[in-house]
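Fold this: TauD/TfdA-like domain-containing protein
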Amino acid sequence: MLAELHRNHYTYQTTACKMSSVISGPVLAAAIAPIVGNNGFPFAAATNAEAPALPSGFPSELRSKLAWTGADFADEHKYILCLTETDLAEVKQAIAEYKSLDQDGYLVEPNTFQLPTLGSKLRALGQDVHFGKGFGVIRGLDCAGFSVEDLTLAYMGLQSYVAEQRGRQDKRGNMLVHIVADNSTKQAADHHRHSNKSITFHNEEAGDIVSWLTRSTAATGGKCIIASAYTIYNVLAATRPELIRTLARSDWPFSMPRFQCRPVIFYEDSKLIMNFGRAALLGNQAHPRPQHLPSLTTRQVEALDAIEAIAKASQMEIQTQAGDIHFINNLAVLHRREGFVNGEDPSTKRHLVRMRLRSTEHGWPIPKELTQEWDEAFQKKGVKHWHLEPMPAYYFPLRRQPN
């Protein structure tokens, strides 16, 4: 077996398996660490008879715009939609016209938030998030120039052009989740959404698209970091196909938001879907794993570590600014947060407002193992709360929600 690693492209060849794959972009040495054995040689089987096959129906390589590395987007204009003065004027006019309708803000949609020229740009962004690279950023809103109500209305109006369905984020019906540092209780201080520590790559439990409005940024740190699940798959399929088999098995014991054994990855309708979080599988300070639940196997932990290492080696960092609106394909792109330190001034305290979204027109088919979470978010009739400002931790069932 021969393995070669280059800075600008990674090629792995195995004479035993007669397999070759090329992954574009700078997949650095860190990506190899979890997927090779002693002496730097892969420890996959060495004969055709022993070589692990990919799960039935899974491709040897995903050729898609969703397979990228951070180096592909050194030019931020490739993923940031900068609002022009004309765009901003349209947003302000749309806010005024919507408020004249005397409707609740959560009912805003393109028909009632009309953007004559900006609308087509936002629809193109929605196409790109669903079927292109899987992420995008709107930049240019001046948070200080809007009231909280108008800023939230602008966020939801712009968002409605990308994906119009808005999902409940917990059983209490919270629609807006405020990501802010909160040490008022130990549970809050240790929780992903209220800690200031760095967190590992993950997906949200539900939602085709995860979106957030940045109302303010930290004094230092707090960057948004993303990685392509498609690139991770391609590296593993080329080097450790047995880990693809492990990830596709239905024996992963998720503890949250409900106990369920299911796969981490799915391949349906010619689309790869990855959905997981380490907290729900391994536990953490905010979510100690119940002792009566099964633990992960050594191979499962190895697969999670491989995902994390490859994601970090191919990741993309986004230096967020106040007023930015992020959209990330939650089915195909992983995300994590850099640790941060807040300042004393409110403008230097990190504050994101998160929503989970789905598009009626562009939404992907959801695997049956995930439909309960999607139905509870988008289909279930029940109370919906729209808190425009952060609320005390007891408003949110933090213990049952990993993110």
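The chain has a mean pLDDT of 85. Residues 70-227+312-400 form a domain with the Double-stranded beta-helix fold (CATH 3.60.130.10).
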